[in-house]
Amino acid sequence: MIGMLKNVAPGILLLCSVVLLSVRDAYAADPPSPFALSLSKAIELAYKNNKDIQIQEREVRIAKSNILGAVSQMLPQVNLGGAFTHNDAVLSFPGEAAESTNKDPGLFTGYKNNFNTALSANESVFNGGGNIANLKQSQVNLKVQEQTLRARKLDAEFDARRLYYGLLLAFETERIAGNILGQAQVHYHDVENKFSQGTSSRFDLLQSGVYVSLQTPPLVKSQKDIELIMAELNKLIGLKVYNKIQPQEKLSYFPITIKEDEFLGEAALNSPQMIVKSLGIDVEKWGIEIARSYRRPQVTADFDWYYQSDNLGDMFNPRHNNWYAGAAVTIPIFDGFSTKAKVDAAKSKYAQAVLKKEDITDQIAVDIRRACLDLRQAETVILSQRDSVVQAQDALSISIISYDNGVDTNLNVLDSMVALSQVEQNLASGIYDYQMAQAALDRTMGRSVK
Q1: What is the pLDDT of residues 342-394, one digit of tens each?
Q2: How many Å is the Cα radius of gyration of the chain?
Q3: Rounded Cα–Cα distance for residues 232 and 248 (Å)
Q4: What pLDDT is attached to residue 95?
Q5: Degrees (nearest 5) of the Cα angle 168, 49, 275?
Q6: Which domains are present in the chain?
């Protein structure tokens, strides 16, 4: 048996190898097409697949259910019930007592075998305003959860913009690194030809070769950055990590007018963080009313209509039914300072809510100030580098021609390459920084691009 396995195993391994190689060759011959992705599509998919958004959507549903629960406390509670009781002994009446009333005496004194069916209703007429305050608090809490959901969506949108623009920057960085490496390789071959003809020094040849080797790591790093950002973006939008993405936009610059005062005003009205903190004050205000309701009178009303008999088949007739209705008033006198403790705690929570709103107001002002400064800084970089790209390209062309004619040095050619790559990278980074500053500003103001 072991010998057979030894003979079969190599065949199985060979077969598996052939299959794996076939799959690899098929994949290499026809790799899956990159997923075309626009910024708006990325944001839409981020909304759909973000777990924090999904969790918060459930919180909104819970808040809606809590409103219905608060309403139910203000409505009558109606119940239908039945019971059977066996008594060892009951009080009996003389026969003439049964003739003096249209009700069965057992209805009042009970039966040995007692069947009972009752329809009961009770209503909290007034509980110190606690039910109304609880309903108002639940309604405000729903608005809090809805604004929190909007904040979650803004966070997901910011992450989508961050990764999408980051991918555009990585592609641009790869392009710059690839161009500079290609230019360096072409220049190295030119120097190599000149060296073979005796018109260039060995130092220039070595210097050019070293420069080529120095340009390889930035290109490899940019390619790694592309793969890593793609993986993070795929995770955000719900695609497989190894999926290739083809962005539909280019890294571009669209300036906006910076009006810090207007941004602050918009944030005060539209920022979900600001709205949540304002609503939090209302939540705690109604919490104070709920706490105060415990020291106010409580009024309840009850009504019961029931049938009682010792014969289940003969229960529903006028001799066996009865009803009663009543109301009760309870006035709290002393509860051991329990209500005072609740009111004091509610007031402290209210004061905390006010302070939290003041704190978020200051923080939003800081965030808007930071975003405006970042916009100005990035815009300065963009404007200073945009025209310099053409100048750096011209300078590189001049230095190459001058070196070919023997009137310039190899070092100047390499310096011109470095200057061009730095200007292009500064411009790309400046555009990315501008886009991210605008994305941060939009999130702070509660403004969505969707």
Answers
A1: 999 999 999 999 999 999 999 999 999 999 999 999 999 999 998 899 999 99
A2: 40
A3: 18
A4: 52
A5: 90
A6: 32-75+127-296+336-445 (1.20.1600.10), 76-125+298-331 (2.20.200.10)
